[in-house]
Design a protein that fits this description.
This is Protein GrpE. By secondary structure, the protein is of the alpha+beta class. It folds into 2 domains: 26-79; 82-184, Roll (Nucleotide Exchange Factor Grpe, Chain A, domain 2). The chain has helices at residues 8-11, 22-27, 37-79, 82-102, 108-126, and strands at 129-132, 145-151, 161-166, 168-171, 174-177, 179-184. Helix 4 (82-102) packs antiparallel against helix 5 (108-126). The protein is elongated and about 100 Å long. It starts with 7 loop residues before the first helix and ends in a 5-residue tail after the last strand. 7% of the residues are buried.
């Protein structure tokens, strides 16, 4: 095992705290090539300030890395399944189309499709997936809707939704898929 290095200042009787006179040391003439006592103290103080600055910067950087890691972990937990969620959206669309095509028929198959769609929406809800279902007459919102077409429709104002082609979905607060809508282009009278 290596022996710890001894501090030469601890053994030097001139450097003992009770015997050391700082003012006298600063007034002494420096030996040839050595710094004066005051210059040495200023150099030590400058080095101390530099080290303190480096330490504070390292601490700040460490805190930033910690915060970034927490944010990345939270984001991964919330949005990590977005690819799977996007892949499940056509399943919802197909179930919805099947129900729309069946109309008011009331047989066992239709009831099964309704229950399957309801369970799919429950699973979506448990995982933070919310349905974006605009109504006819709502204002077009480019953040939530995708305009599939524009058409002039009497009795509407420009920018109103006139048809909903497909519902959209949010994953927590991120848009998975915008609602696909038709928008009125009726000019203002």
């Amino acid at each position: 095992m290596a022996q710890p290095k001894e501090d030469p200042f601890l053994d030097d009787p001139e450097m003992q705290e009770e015997d050391f006179d700082l003012d006298a040391a600063m007034e002494e003439e420096p030996e040839s090539g050595a710094l004066s006592g005051r210059a040495a103290m200023e150099a030590v103080a400058a080095e101390r300030d530099e080290l303190r600055d480096r330490l504070m910067r390292a601490l700040a950087e460490t805190e930033n890395v910690r915060k970034r890691a927490v944010r990345d972990r939270t984001e991964a937990e919330q949005y990590g399944a977005s690819r799977l969620a996007r892949d499940l959206l056509p399943v919802y669309d197909n179930l919805r189309r099947a129900l729309d095509a069946a109309g008011d028929a009331n047989d066992g198959v239709i009831e099964g499709v309704k229950l399957t769609l309801k369970e799919l929406l429950n699973v979506f809800g448990r995982h933070g997936i919310k349905l974006v279902s605009p109504e006819i007459g709502d204002r077009f919102d480019p953040q939530m809707h995708e305009a599939m077409f524009e058409a002039p429709l009497p009795g509407t104002r420009a920018g109103e939704i006139i048809q909903v082609a497909a519902e959209g979905f949010l994953l927590h607060d991120r848009l998975l898929r915008p609602a696909q809508v038709g928008v009125s282009s009726t000019p203002a009278s």
